[in-house]
Amino acid sequence: MTSPDGSRTKDLTLGKDDLLHLYRQMVAIRKFEERAAEQYAHGKIGGFLHLYIGEEAIAVGAIDAMEDRDHVVTHYRDHGYAIALGTDPRRLMAELFGRSTGVAGGRGGSMHFADPEHNFWGGYAIVAGHLPIATGLALASQYLEQNYVVLCFFGDGATNNGAFHESLNFASLWKLPVLFICENNQYGMGTAVEYASAVREMAKKAIAYDIPAERIDGQDVLEVREAVKKALDHCRAGNGPFFLEALTYRFRGHSMADPEAYRTKEEVEEWRREDPILRFRGKLLAEGVATEDELNAIDSEVDAQMEEAVRFADESPVPDPSTLTDYVYTEPVAVR
Amino acid sequence: MATKLLIDAIRDTLFEEMRGDDRIIVLGEDVGKRGGVFRVTAGLIDEFGEERVIDTPLAESSIVGVAIGAALHGLLPVAEIQFFDFIHPAMDQIMNEAAKIRYRSGGDFDCPIVIRTPYGGGVHGALYHSQSLESAFTREPGLKVVAPVNPADAAGLLRSAIHDPDPVLFLEHKKAYRLIRDEVPENGHTVPIGKAKVVKEGSDVTIISYGMMLYESLAAANALEEKDGSSVEVIDLRTLRPLDKETILASVAKTGKVLIVHEANKVGGVGAEVAALIAEEAFPYLDGPIMRVAGPEVPAMPFSPPLEQAYLPNAEKIGAALEQLAAF
After folding, report:
1. How far apart are alpha carbons A224 and B295 in whole angstroms?
2. ipTM of the complex
3. Does A320 map to a domain?
């Protein structure tokens, strides 16, 4: 594996506040997840926890390029999108803790965040299962003439699934405003892309459906932001779907219980040098946008915010077992 | 009151509802220009256009998934799966997404979709054009499953299903489409989901059925009454999930004997759940075993007519079971 070319960064055309906002968002995701991993180790979080660490530039760059009216649907490695969209980290941490104050009242956990206030229709734990749903949301946009675009995130593993191909075909056929963003982190759980996909460049699969596609450096938040902005313009103008393949790498295991026997320490180390936060931080310093002190101050503020998220989650009540059968149907239905 | 075939009752209801609510769209294989394989949707595209009557690729997973996505943002999609047998590729979307999306969101997300599909055999459709797969869906909390066979019930339940905020699987017996004709009330009548109907009142034994087997059951009931004066009650379940517990248990309390009849395979069928319900909640009323006449342990309906007939329950087989039950 080769790492993306670190020199492919964009000029800093944004203002300082905007640049620091991007930095803060990436740090927020990183620190949220570091605290989650720690709480998992403490036994406060159970089940399956999949961390996004290493891939933060994609969620942050893409969501920063969105308009408020746009919609987001994602795979199960979903913490980063919710944070970038502005969902309260306290309610997200509470969901990880399985508390009633969580974004799904403790019904979903890590893989099933959602936030209707921010048009975030959720993380979906069936690989590729959410692509038809994203396509349907885009159909509603077109039908209702609301001119929103649906950003649909998924991994490289999803591109081998039938639902992926059905969705790209539908979206292209009907010229739907959906932006497919493939986060190619080069492994579907423990199987490398070259063992799972006859085509290594996922963007080529989109081209097969006559969808314009581009491969970008997923470790560069500004490159992601710029590419997504252009892609959204394309979709919003009624030109149909667009496909971005963001090359990235998952720094941690697939989930918290992953011995990582399928990849080498050297490869992980090589990619860790492409840490999206460190790269962006280095750029901000090198270009004189911010000082060490300013960036450290942001880090400290985020630390405090995540400390508070953990405290909130820990002190939140667990769901009342008598609510188990709520929300199966709109109206309570006594089946048996 | 107009008299209509089942197929016309369904089509007319789609027209009427689509005229009244432009959030309703129809999508599926060949539903537009072709008007549907059985012509249930014939003419819709002429009145409502390609935007609302959408011919889709042969891709069931995304037909249902697209319907779910569109429903999340306010549309009322009526998806058609061309034959029930073709629904398996969409199972993930139905079971994992549609059935769970309200629950997983803590009640934040609505999924008001209808999935219409023709089912059932007796039309020489063979392996993949005859199946009755309803019990795969009736076991799934979050879904509603209806199987009306009477034209008035079909119209009323389709109207309820379209406006229901939860996902509804709407089963249409393909043999009944142009065979069953009855009066259909005008003026947008509805039939509530979850209510069975006592089609024929009786006092000695209860037959619980749905779909085309309802008519075989009625024939068997009438034959027995003529033969020995037995009084047979016949219930059309109409909704398979949620079951109408009250109607079922009230009838059992009255007759004390139950025969459940359906075309779908007996093992794990809807009848198994109905039998378990009665055994759990009406045991003191029973004067004999809960009996079932249903499809055999065969994975598909065979093509050749003698084999197909051997597969299907009929009035004669139902009558034999009734006589066995009468002996208790």
Report:
1. 57
2. 0.94
3. no
> What's the sign of the alpha-carbon dihedral B219, B224, B225, B231?
negative
Q: In sequence order, which ranges of B25-184 are alpha helices (DSSP H)?
A: 44-48, 60-72, 91, 101-104, 135-138, 151-163
Query: Which pLDDT value is given to residue A259?
Result: 86
* C-beta atoms of A132 and B66 within 8 A: yes
Closest CB to A129 among B93, B164, B242: B93
Q: Taking CB atoms and an 8 Å cutoff, what residues of chain B touch A329?
A: 102, 142, 144, 166
Six-digit token string for B94: 């139905």
B66 touches chain A (CB under 8 A): yes
Identity of the amino acid at B173: H
Question: What is the residue-wise DSSP string for A244-308?
Answer: EEEE---SS-SSSS---TTS-HHHHHHHHTT-HHHHHHHHHHHTTSS-HHHHHHHHHHHHHHHHH
**Interface contacts (A, B; CB < 8 Å):** 142
| Mutate which: B104, B110, B193, B245, vs A, most A CBs within 10 A | B104
Contacts of B146 in chain A (CB under 8 A): none
Give the closest-approach CA distance of A7 to chain B in angstroms.
40
Within-domain flag for A99: yes
Please indicate whether residue B124 is annotated as part of the active site: no
Distance CA B322, CA A147 (A): 62
Nearest to B65 among A133, A174, A333 (CB): A133
Q: Which residues pair with B27 in a beta bridge?
A: B54, B79
Q: What phi, psi does A107 have (nearest 5°)?
A: -80, -25
Q: Tell me how crowded residue B175 is: count the other CB atoms within 10 A of its CB.
A: 22
User: Would you call B142 an interface residue with chain A, using a CB distance cutoff of 8 Å?
Assistant: yes
DSSP A326: T
Amino acid at A317: P
Q: What pLDDT is attached to residue A177? A: 98
Residue pair B262/B132 in contact by the 8 Å Cβ criterion? yes
Q: Is residue A206 part of a domain?
A: yes
Domains of chain B: 2-184 (3.40.50.970), 197-326 (3.40.50.920)
Q: What is the model's pLDDT at position A335?
A: 54
In the three-class reduction of DSSP (H, G, I as helix; E, B as strand; rest coil), residue B321 is classed as helix
The whole-model pTM stands at 0.95
Report, as an integer, the average pLDDT of B262-287.
Answer: 98
Q: How many helices (H) and strands (E) does chain A have?
A: 12, 8
- Residue B274: CB partners within 8 Å, gap ≥ 6? B208, B237, B243, B248, B260
CA pseudo-torsion sign B164, B169, B174, B175: negative
Which residues, 6 or more positions from A297, have their beta carbon under 8 angstroms from its beta carbon?
Answer: none
Number of domains chain A contains: 1
Q: Which of A124, A139, A164, A325 to probe the B interface (max B CBs under 10 A)?
A: A139
List CB contacts (< 8 A) between A328 and chain B: 102-103, 141-142
CATH at A136: 3.40.50.970
Instruction: Tell me if B102 and A329 make a contact (CB, 8 A cut-off).
Output: yes
* Spans of chain A, pLDDT less than 70: 1-12, 334-336
